[in-house]
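Anyone else keep sequences and structure tokens together like this?

Example one:
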Amino acid sequence: MQERGFKKEHNFIMENRHKVILSGVIDIISFNECEVVVFTELGELKIKGEKLEIINADKDSGDMQLHGRVDGLCYGNSERVANNFLTRLFK
């Protein structure tokens, strides 16, 4: 069931707390080896852990792969923040 206003689905698949496959990723807000913050079709998602590394991110499809030890994840604000990582990167 899709919420009103959302166009695509968002999926989160985790294998053995070391591999994450995401779909419905709109933007990468920030990332380092301890935390990755992305904005998805269903809002902000923070993934915390150790030695986190973005393996693949496809802006056109909204798919993303992440490796490293995942300790936690938290969904947050469903409104997109204008000052995001890619906006700052291409200024």
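And example two:
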Amino acid sequence: MTKQDCFYLGRIAKPFSYKGELVLFFDVDEPLDYLDLDFVYIEINKRLVKYEIESLRPHANKVVARFKDVTVEESNVLVGKDLYLPLERLPKLEGNKFYFHEIIGFNVVDEEKGNIGKIREIYDNMTQPIMAIDFGEKEILIPLIDEVIKQVDRQNKTIHIKAPQGLIDIYLD
């Protein structure tokens, strides 16, 4: 399993007890939706390693887990490691809700300018996510915010937007 086939679920926050249990932080909207997990992938030395789950239970806003066949000493080494799940495990989104990986390659149609190109990448390390759109030899950057997104058409792989006034013109001049 590779990271490209998975999504980031969260990380192992700290040990929970002397029995080898661990506190997991799930970086998702609904952590309780993931209490039925049989396994997770843990990133160790830049590789994803599958760990079977013996038990999961809610604890405050986190989850307490015990992994099968993992000793107390081995569990302590896992603290701070990232957790991943296969993309198929993501809940399906509808309407104008989407996952960033899902819209790569979608055409972007602006209300004023028409088709402005395809989404090449999403920059998500800023204060707000940004769509990088290939327009011929140029790159157009559009904020990925609710006010801009008007319709997500999954069937035709198109996102309809209303870009802020004058923003696209900056890239076309």
